[in-house]
Amino acid sequence: MNILTKYNKVTGLALLFAFSLITFISCDEDLVYPDQSKLPPATYDTSNWTISDYSSQEDQGGEGDTGRAADIIDGNTSTFWHTCWSGCTPVPPHFITVDMKKENEVHGFFLVQRQSLSRNLESIEIQVSQDGSTWSSAGTFNLEKIAAQQELVLSEPNSFRYYKMIVNSVFDGSDNAALAELVPYIAYN
Known about the structure:
Signal peptide: 1-28
Structural class: mainly beta
Order of helices and strands: HHEEEEEEEEE
Helix content: 10-25%
Keywords: Signal
InterPro entries: FA58C, Galactose-bd-like_sf
Distance between the termini: 51 Å
Number of helices: 2
Oligomer: single chain
Strand content: 35-45%
Protein name: Carbohydrate binding module (CBM32)
Radius of gyration: 24 Å
Domain F5/8 type C: 32-187
Low-confidence stretches: 1-26
Shape: globular
C-alpha cells in the first residue's frame, strides 16, 4: 500500500463522514429524529410464543381447522379460539395463558373479536406474570361487539413474560366464548 492509497482511503472516509454529518444535520428533523408520539404502537413477533395453559378449546373438529387457544396469537383474524362444545360442556371461568418466551415491555393489547360476532367477549381481565405462577392484574376491560380491532390500554407500562386472559362475560350470556386475536403492543410515545 503506497501513500496515495492511504491518502485516498483517508479522504474517502473524511468525505463519507462529512456526507453523513450533512445527512444527520437535516432541516426535516422527523426524518432523522422521528417524533415518537407520531409512531403507531407496534406488536411483537408472536411466531415463537406458545400457549402454556387454557381452560378449554374446541379441538374435536366442531370448528373445523380452527378453535384452538393458539389461534389468538397466530396473526390471522379468520382463525379463532372457541371453548369446547363438540362432545363437551365448557365450564367458566375460561382463560388462556400465553408464554412470550422472554420478558417484554407492554403498553397495551390489540384485541379482535371472532369475525362472525358469535360468542364474543364482553368483559375480560388480563393478568401478567414473570414466572407463570405469581399473577397480578393488569386491568379489566369492557369490550365492544365489533369485528374491528380494539385497543386495550394498560394504566401504566408493564414488563412481563406471561399474560393470561380471563373471560368475565360474553355478550350472548352463554358458557361458550370465542376470540380471534389478543396480542400485546409497545407504544413509542
